[in-house]
Amino acid sequence: MWELNRLFSVDQIRQSFLDFFAERSSQIEPSASLIPVDPSILFTIAGMVPFKKMFLGLENKGYTRAASCQRCIRTNDLDNVGRTARHHTFFEMLGNFSFGDYFKPDAIRWGWEFITEVMKIDPARLWITIYTDDDEAYRIWKDEVGVSPGRIVRLGEEDNFWRMGETGPCGPCSEILIDLGEDRGCGKPTCAVGCDCDRFLELWNLVFTQYDCRADGMLSPLPMRNIDTGLGLERLASVIQGKDNNYEIDNILPIIEYTARLSNIRYKQDEASDVAWKVIADHVRAATFLISDGVFPANEGRGYVLRRLIRRAIQNGRKLGLKNLFLFQLVGVVVDLMKRAYPELVEKREHISQVVKSEEERFSETLEIGSAKVTELLDSLRAKNIDTIPGIEAFKLYDTYGFPLDLTREIAHDEDFKIDVAGFEQALAEQKTRARGATGFSHEEAENPEIYGTILTEIGPTEFLGYDNGSCRARLLRILHDNKEVSRLTEGQEGVLLLDRSPFYAESGGQRGDSGSLRGADSQVLITDVHKYGGGLFLHLGKVTHGIIDAGMDLTAEVDAGHRQATAVNHTATHLLQAALRKVLGNHIKQSGSLVTATRLRFDFTHPAALHERELKKVEELVNEWIRADSEVNVSETSYDEAVKSGALAFFGEKYDQVVRSVSVGEVSTELCGGTHCRRSGEIGLFKITSESGIAAGIRRIEGLAGYPAWQKSVEEEKILHGVSGLLGVSVHDLEEKVAKLLKEIKQKDKLLEELATRQALSAAGDLLDRVKPVNEVKCLMTIVEGVNAKQLRSVVDDLKNRLGSGLVLLFAPRDEGVAIVLGVTKDLTGRLNAGKLIAAAAQVLGGRGGGRPDFAQAGGKDKTKIPQAMEAVEELIKQS
Ligand code: SER
Question: 170 FRET partner, CA 20 to 30 A, in 21, 691, 827, 874?
């Protein structure tokens, strides 16, 4: 038996790998974020991802050799996680890279040396694979390393040609595998290197990155020959530590052990629950790192992956009897296990566990509320005799309550309902279209983008003078009317006007365009809005209020200063709002959208939970404090990198030019921003938050008012308060108490009324007893009752059953639409008569559905005219009983 080196912890293995390559002149790069800069992939899936541009020869970081331990997420094998010894969504990849520097001989020799000499894995257990026709690699392994030819296996494209994605760097590869022994294999006679089972474990993939795969699938040779290698840290550690599965290495097993302490089931008690342990351990590692890298649970993109991982972990927890919130507690365990390699986790510990916790709470609530809503929905469908959940209803459950389609489907299935999945998909698609429509393309642009494209190439972008000037002389270059170019506009006509230069701010970055006027000697145009086309052409939307304007004439363009100032005040207030949110809630707050107008502002940002009343108050207070501090607003231009380095907030997902404008308010806020602002924060005067809401999972929206509208609102509210206090005859101060008292009184009266109505219904029911007639020796009371609500109907049935002592009560209560049916059977008869079955027969005659217990059932029907037939149907069944 070969000897294992059991001394290495995961931390030590990681470090010895990096040291090994540092000794070979490699730059040691820290792990990049799980969110790649590269938009072609969702997550960092390999160590080479942060180096993509280096491989393509598009970037030079000043070195040609590097090594790293990269955190990665892969979700393509999600269903295998937990079922095999080695699948993960989150894992760490050790890798060494050469950018036109060393190539196959060194990559191969060093790989072998690290595995056999540093990790001390017995060479007799190692196998090598190479790409079908890679004779060069074959020769190096055989002649320079001394691997026996019988241990070198040639494999095809699928196994030994590595691609980053559909496009990007790729090349043939060679792998080092370890034979874990026959007892770990599938036992099939065909089992050999390349078999999918656990016996031959691929340890290290050496990719000879020579090509760039283009969008058309063609491989174009890269300017230089590169090396990209990937060595799975978890699998290497499992071999070194002598574990037969990756989940038992020293930086994962403690997660399972901790979870086991919360559950009554032991790890390794049975196979099904073993899968659950591993899924939880894997997913909580992934969630911890994803949140640390700025992802929030959401319904699409990365956030959706995170949400799915957290929810899968929770569902697996339920299999282990973990019904209470548990996952968030594991975050601390992960942080402690990983903090030496990722010290940044320590300061984010609280935040990460908070995000997980709120998603856990949300999911439990979702399950509870959603299940109740589905039951309600099924009841009402049943009453209408519909057996398919309409797509729009399933969508509402998903959209309003976050209840996953899968779960709706499960409940529907149990209750014998079908579900219109196509309708659901359509509603989902429609919502997406609506969401896109809300992103703010102006009608003009949307209607006729080509014409502006042509004009932009002809006249070039509009020169913007508006940061420093409220007015300027400008030449009117083009006029458009009804999307067509015209040479003039006359009084009363509307159009889009294009100038060579403009003081008007054109809508962008969430800030609405300026308004104002264009004036000639005998003419005037009122500008109501300004949009931007293609990043640089200003479209002035206006109406001629006086005279005639001709293309080519010179005009005075003047911005409405009051409107501009009111917008500026809202914009500066929005910056302060963002700064206050970060201060109160934490630095995870990132802008995800905004709207700034002259009358209101809106700010969307990432945050996992609704804001608490006191958090909102604190935010509002802080903004007002900063307003009163009357700090100077400073604008400077600098390079993007400089600005971000010095702490300016950049809007995630936005493209910035190399030279950016940085706007700061005193010491409290610095943001990259192209908008217009006031000169001092004091000009804002007053800031009020008017609402806080969620607009998507993990995204909150605050709406607010700044400046005059904020004051105006408080005046209006004061007026309403005084009006109400006059009506109620108390002072504003006593208003709250008075309203609370009134509400209490109303509630008591409602209760009294309800009691009276029930009493009345019951006394009327007493008269019904005359209508009892025996059917097959059963005292039966079948009748129509009017003006009784569902709750009373139930009491009436109970009351009548009591009075009958033994018998059956069947009541029909016609409604505006359809009819409610209840049926009660006294306990002594339930052996013979089943209320649920009898009511189903009645409901069927009336074109409805229903069911219930043997002694009480309710249903809904459609056709009131068939009540006598429904009674007969029930009678018939009683006769047969
Ligand atoms: N990029 C290759 C892989 O992921 C080697 O690092 O396997």
Answer: 21
